[in-house]
Specification:
Blueprint (H helix, E strand, L loop, with lengths): L1 E8 L1 H5 L3 H11 L2 E8 L3 H7 L9 H8 L4 E9 L1 H9 L13 H5 L8 E3 L3 H11 L4
Antiparallel strand pairs: 1-3, 1-4, 2-3
This protein binds inosine-5'-diphosphate.
Inosine-5'-diphosphate binds next to loops.
GO molecular function: ATP binding; metal ion binding; nucleoside diphosphate kinase activity
EC number: 2.7.4.6
Cofactor: Mg(2+)
């Protein structure tokens, strides 16, 4: 069954010139990029995107981080796209959870600045794609 997932290369990934690396892995996996855009994120979009974390100790710092520089926003499509992109990304903590060979496992050290985002369910994918790409 074909799915779509939101893909973000976060400000740390963009600053470290890892956009090409991330998009290349998505394409090599067999997923199709159906939208790609470099975006500056305002606080309102950031807060909506991370609404499920509102109230957590790291929420404010997360908003500061995600609005600190340009973000690459994309939509990838293919069979099991949501799980496939999360597999490529690796677990949230790049050292304790992300396997070597994943983007976070290969390039990350910090839990907040962990390079990429991927939707975690069909429900969040639908919500996030509507938020970032309302015309898609
Ligand atoms: P995910 O991005 O792997 O789906 P979530 O738990 O949904 O992980 O968290 C969203 C983002 O919030 C993470 O990617 C990371 O940037 C940040 N984050 C999550 N947990 C922590 C934490 O304990 N400290 C700092 N930042 C965190």
């Amino acid at each position: 069954m074909t799915e779509r997932t939101l893909v973000l290369v976060k400000p740390d990934g963009v600053a470290r010139n890892l956009i090409g690396e991330c998009l290349a892995r998505i394409e090599r996996k067999g997923l199709k990029l159906v939208a790609v855009e470099l975006r500056t994120v305002d606080r309102a979009l950031a807060a909506q995107h991370y609404a499920e974390h509102d109230g957590k100790p790291f929420f404010e710092s997360l908003l500061e981080f995600i609005t600190s520089g340009p973000v690459l926003a994309a939509v990838a499509e293919g069979p099991r796209a949501i799980a496939a992109w999360r597999q490529l990304a690796g677990g949230t903590d790049p050292v304790e959870k992300a396997a070597p060979g994943s983007i976070r496992g290969d390039f990350g050290l910090e839990t907040q600045a962990n390079l990429v985002h991927g939707s975690d369910s069909p429900e969040s994918s639908a919500r996030e794609i509507k938020l970032w790409f309302p015309d898609l």
